[in-house]
Amino acid sequence: MKDILIVGAGFGGVWGALSAARLLDKYDCDYVHIILLAPQPELRIRPRFYEPEVHRMFAPLEDLFDTVGIRFIMGTANRIDEQAQTVGYIDETGQQAELHYDRLVLATGSQLVRPNVPGLDTHAFDVDQIESAVRLENHLRSLKDRPCSAARNTVVVAGGGFTGIETATEMPARLKAVLGDDQDIQVIVVDRGPQIGAALGDGIRPSIIEASRHLGIEWVLNATVAAVDENGVTLADGRRIEAATVIWTVGFRASPLTEQLTSVRDAQGRLHVDEHLKVFGQDKVFAAGDVAYAATDDLGNFAVMSCQHAISLGRHAGNNAAADLLGVLPTPYRQPRYVTCLDLGAWGAVFTEGWDRQLKLVKQEAKELKTQINTLWIYPPAADRATALAAADPRIPVA
């Protein structure tokens, strides 16, 4: 018997397991087993964690896995021994345990970087995980019990990238729902960039600027947060912003498990992989999702940390891990089409195509597409064997 071990139940891990199951089913293989190791049997819909009711934003996986023959083990991986071909983990009872693999698909995702900024860990919120986003949600609801003040009505979002913008544009409606429409709400984005939405390019910037004006969002540019306390933030240039709510959205890094493999990593800790998503320097390890530094085409573009790429990376990595054991040809990973759909709160959204982000849809049209993506497209398939396996075909375009 042979084992394919998938570590992680995010988009890359779930689709990797389903894709491996699809190929094994296609070849009527009964000597390869698929095991998925993760802290919980659920796909957490991280792209929506800035929204309200965040505790509902997960999809249970047990029925789906049972339907297609994937064995789920609850635990948190903490060690990879590439020589012994084992993954160590803390099981649900808190004990150290170990799993052997013949092929490993590492899909443990990424995490928010929290630098050594005074007061950050104690006083700042984030939307990186369900638990931290729930903490923010509870905090926002509690604001109504505080005396009215400018600080109570102010949210500072540190970081003007994708997550920061979607979080900031959600905040005016969230605060008004808690405090009332008659309150003077202030949302401030602190960003090190020289322009609004600088990292997202010229195609999207006009929409971000228009949405910010419409929603009353202020940008403080060429600035960084030097310290956070219970009453607000102090910027590196000494300026002070009084705020009861500070949300940190700056920087993501691949799971630290990538550092346990003998391979090459990029600046974000992602493992360099070949066209079949096999990790450089490894014969039995594949990577998918946010831990993989993978070329999407022959033009110099690489997958970004997003569900758009993680789903396709997962389909290819799982398929190719199974193909390796079956002795059949792998499927090269290619994802030349790239889209961006940025939610901009009550203003709407903006949708672009291509790495140069050519504007295609704005406002309500883009908002409808964003809603469809967030509520339908990125959720796993139903627990029907034929449907689930068909959906895991790596040849299916994601974007």
From TrEMBL:
Organism: Metapseudomonas lalkuanensis
Keywords (A to Z) from UniProt: FAD, Flavoprotein, NAD, Oxidoreductase
Transmembrane spans: none
Ranges where the FAD/NAD(P)-binding domain occurs: 2-312
Protein name: NAD(P)/FAD-dependent oxidoreductase
InterPro entries found in the cross-reference section: FAD/NAD-bd_sf, FAD/NAD-binding_dom, NDH-2
Gene3D superfamilies (UniProt xref): 3.50.50.100
Keyword Oxidoreductase appears in the UniProt entry: yes
